[in-house]
Amino acid sequence: MLACFRSIHLAIVLIALLALATLAGVLLPQEGIVDTLEIKRNAGANYRIFKAMGLYTVYSSYWFIALEVLFFLNLLCGSFQWLKPAFLAATRKTFCGPEHIQSSPHKLLYQTAEPLGTVTAQVTSLLKRHHYTIHKPNVPKQRRDGAILLYASKANWSRFGPVVAHFGILLMLVASVYGAFFGFKAQKLAVPGETFAIQDSQMFRPNVNTSLWQGSVPDWKIRVNDFRMEYYPEGTTAENVQPGQNPVIKQYFADLSVIDKSGRTTKREVISVNHPLTVNDTVLYQASFNPTGKLFVEVNGKLRKLDTNTQFMNRPVSLTELGNGRALMVFPFFVQQDPNVTRNYIVIFLRDAHGFVGAKPGKMPPNLRLREGQSGELSGMRFTYVKPEFATGLQIKKGPEVPWMYLAYGIIILGAFMCIFSQRRLWIAILPAVDSDENPQTRLMLQYKTNKARLSFMKELQSLQNELMTGLQVQTIPADAVTSVENNKPALQKGSTHAEEMSPV
Amino acid sequence: MSETNWFYTALMMLTVSGVFYLLHALKPRTLFREGGWGSMLLSCLCLIVSLIVRSQHAKYFALSNMYESLLVVSIGMQLVFMALDRWFKLRSLGIPVVALLLISLFYDLNLPTEIHPLQPALQSYWRSIHVPIILLSYALFTVAFLSSLVFLVKDYLGGPKTGSGKKSLTPALAAGPQSLQETSFAMNEGQDALNLEIALIQDKANLYDEITYRCVAFGFPMLTLGIILGGIWANEAWGNYWSWDPKESMSLVTLLGYGVYLHLRVNGEHSFRTLAWVSVTGFILMLITYFGVNLMGLGLHSYGKIG
């Protein structure tokens, strides 16, 4: 059973299933991204069945979580399974005698008139220049065939790449579970001057069911001192570019204070998008803003706070008695709420007992359009649009798992990049031989292996071969020219050579 | 010279590059390959200058909409292909790469090119880190896709049979010297085993399998890094390193798709042909991530919406 969980075949199947399940969540309308009413409308009578199947909440559905659990188990078992072979492949030094090299399909055979010592020294030097680490047997025995055995390797650490990446993923999954049981999220729309406790926020929710949640809520409060928006300068465009629908808000800022239990301000900071406020392990983010519907308007020099308290022609409107038989009617327009609005503005009408003041039949009643900060006159009265009241939209999050998550990310990235590189290994036997005229020669036998990037490795071997031909005047000899190696014991030096070491890549 | 002029110059040089690579495919000559490579280098430089000029106008690194991102992907593809061509001296990949680049750039011309001031969410140094890394991975996967296509064409048209069994580096060599006679190679006198093995890889289809693998081997960690950096940025901006946003989810699907490719390759039990088809599937997933989600215009990445 455990062997089944360790299986790479299972891993491939689970990865594919996770991909398909995630794809389903992208293609199907998900609650939280698409309005639930719209989903119900489109699904019709099938809504309940599809919802029970988890099709509208794929990523929190029982079958998706089951897939994630299976994936975690497979990753856990498989990572431990691959750890030992990776360790052995990276650290074990083995030496192959001429017989073994001869029987390998991945070998190179050379012969030269240079003496054994010279060949050994030059081969060692050449491989070191190519960043190979050379090993000799710990207890070099004088072999009957007089062969010198070497083992050269590089990028051994790359064998750990998959293991490192897998452990990073495991840590990430564990960290996310930790965060689920100890973290929370909250959102709050707060107006300047408002003080609130986190647990009183709208949408305060622990990351798991309250009965399972193990976390705690901070006992300090937040006060919103001020909220303001910054706009791009009028007419900000590039050369030769039409303005189009510019998002003219440059940034929005909330001035926040942290108030402890005794009412003391322990921290005060202005936050903006991408610049949150951190208090211990709780972070407050400037996420959004919303007009509250209140407007600050000066009427003949007197500041008034108006409420959008009614509707007119399906638009929210503020209707306020002015006390002189007239009523002030104000239509507000907001950037990013109303189409084609590039600056917040209001349109003011005056009403009295007879209707719109100064109205003529068939014509738009007299009105005054004011942008923020602008003043004007209408029917003998002076108005200044000071500003609309905005509530700052704060996202509050406690994430004790975040440092562990970042550690996991770092490990995953490290492992993933380690996997790019390939381990390259060479088993070398240098032994005395004779040519057809009984002249003394030195035979150089190379067995090679890599776990990836075969063509690059072949090209490196080609480069090595060229250098050997230049430096030692070696000549290649066909594989079948070496018909038999001198009789000797099995050509294995200290450290056994496992079958898998000799198998083709 | 204006941004647009640099763009058109790049298109022109890319066309010249295509002509050279076409000639090289028909009649391999170093002159043709070098001409193609040189023209593509000039085209790439012109696109880079176009991006720099645009950034100067915008007063920020111009990578905030579909037009700019496709420009960066095109630059990435050119850089990847030039590196591969230098290393592997390719014959058949130049034409599909140039063709796809031309299609991409002509499509790019039809996208909205207005420069908008940056929204608050995009005013972060992470934009200059997370986005280019993701786009470079897309470039690598696109070249991998084209290499897979070339492999499949050559394989179906009768390259060396790679078989449906265990994938082996040199099945001919493993079987012994006699089997070499049965391959498409003549055993030239003096041709040593190493050159033969290299030739076996480089011949016909196998080279393009190797190139596909190398591109995916580089693209996968790049995409992993890009997704992770995006999560870190999201955590700093919104307090949520993963919110199953359509773009995030779809990029995860792409990552998992290429994860299947790499695991199948490690497993060693599948033919090069199967791997090529998996690479093609991964590319389709990547297209949905890059274009499909932007067409939907939903979620936190809606500023990439087309139109």
Describe the protein in words.
The complex is a heterodimer of chains A (505) and B (307). Chain A has 505 residues and is an alpha+beta fold. Chain A folds into four domains: 83 residues, no CATH class; 145 residues, Sirohaem synthase, central domain (Double Stranded RNA Binding Domain); 139 residues, no CATH class; 95 residues, no CATH class. In chain A, 30% of the residues lie in helices and 33% in strands. With 307 residues, chain B is mostly helical. Chains A and B meet through helix 2, strand 1, strand 8, strand 11 and strand 20 of A and helix 8, helix 9, helix 10 and helix 11 of B.
CATH first level of the largest domain in chain A: which class? Answer: Alpha Beta
Total number of β-strand segments of chain A? 23
Radius of gyration of chain A: 38 Å
Number of helices of chain A: 11
What structural class should be given to the helix and strand makeup of chain B? mainly alpha
Largest interface (C-beta under 8 Å): A-B, 76 and 71 residues
Count the domains of chain B. 2
- Our Rg estimate of chain B from Cα atoms comes to 21 Å
- From the N-terminal CA to the C-terminal CA of chain B, the straight-line distance is 27 Å
Assign the CATH superfamily of the largest domain in chain A.
Sirohaem synthase, central domain
Do you know the CATH topology of the largest domain in chain A?
Double Stranded RNA Binding Domain
Q: pLDDT under 50 segments of chain B (min length 5)? A: 161-191
What helical percentage do the residues of chain A reach? Answer: 25-40%
Q: How would a crystallographer describe the biggest sheet of chain B?
A: none
The separation of the N and C termini of chain A measures: 29 Å
Range of helix content of chain B: over 70%
How would the global form of chain B be characterised?
A: globular
